[in-house]
Amino acid sequence: MTATTKKNSNNLAALALLLVAAAFAGVLFANSYYMPRFKSEFTRIEKERIIVSNKLATAMIVQENMNHVRDLIFNNMELPGHPDTINRESQFFEFVTACVNDLKLKLVSVKPLAPVTDGRVTTCGYDVIIEGDFFRFGELCAKFENNPRIVSVESFDVSLIADIMPEKKPSNTDFRSDNKGISVRMRVNTYRISKGAG
User: Fold this and answer.
1) Over the stretch 79-102, which tens digit does the pLDDT of each residue have?
2) Nearest by Cα to 110 from 194, 192, 190
3) Which has the closest alpha carbon to 109: 186, 44, 170?
4) How confident is the model over 100-112, as pLDDT tens digits?
5) Phi, psi of 174 (to 5 degrees)
6) What is the pTM of this model?
7) From its phi and psi, is residue 180 left (phi > 0), alpha (psi between -120 and 50) or beta?
8) Residue 181 near residue 159 (C-beta atoms within 8 A)
9) Residue 191: enclosing H or E segment and its boundaries?
């Protein structure tokens, strides 16, 4: 009986090996037959995901730009029935002060000029004097450009105020214009547009 048991056990082992080989062949067949179809489907879905993501990013940029346009309209237009509750001179002075402080410039003076009205547009001018370096003056102009109010730098005069010797320069100051300090006198305008009837 031991020979029969041994033979049965060999047959079972051979059958198990045959089943494992058949299963392995089945997996290989399924992999070669189905996986290319799945791979192309996954590739198609990934391309669709990228397109949808790009459209979403574009929509978000358009929304931000539209919000900026809306802010420009409301911050620069006098709408009938909506009294101006914000003192525009104070708002401009706060904006300039915040920018100058952020950039570590020195604000010497801000002098408001008499508003000039031409048709529906009221121009409010300011004479501004700042001291610092030329690089930071450029950054200040960029901040003016990104203000929700329309701000234009009409003119500016730059003069050299001093050479700052490297050994006397404070260690926490980052001068990027050959260690030269400048004084900038500029004329800055803001605008208000009144909405006419009709």
Assistant:
1) 666 665 566 677 888 888 999 999
2) 190
3) 186
4) 999 999 999 999 9
5) -110, 90
6) 0.54
7) beta
8) no
9) strand 180-194
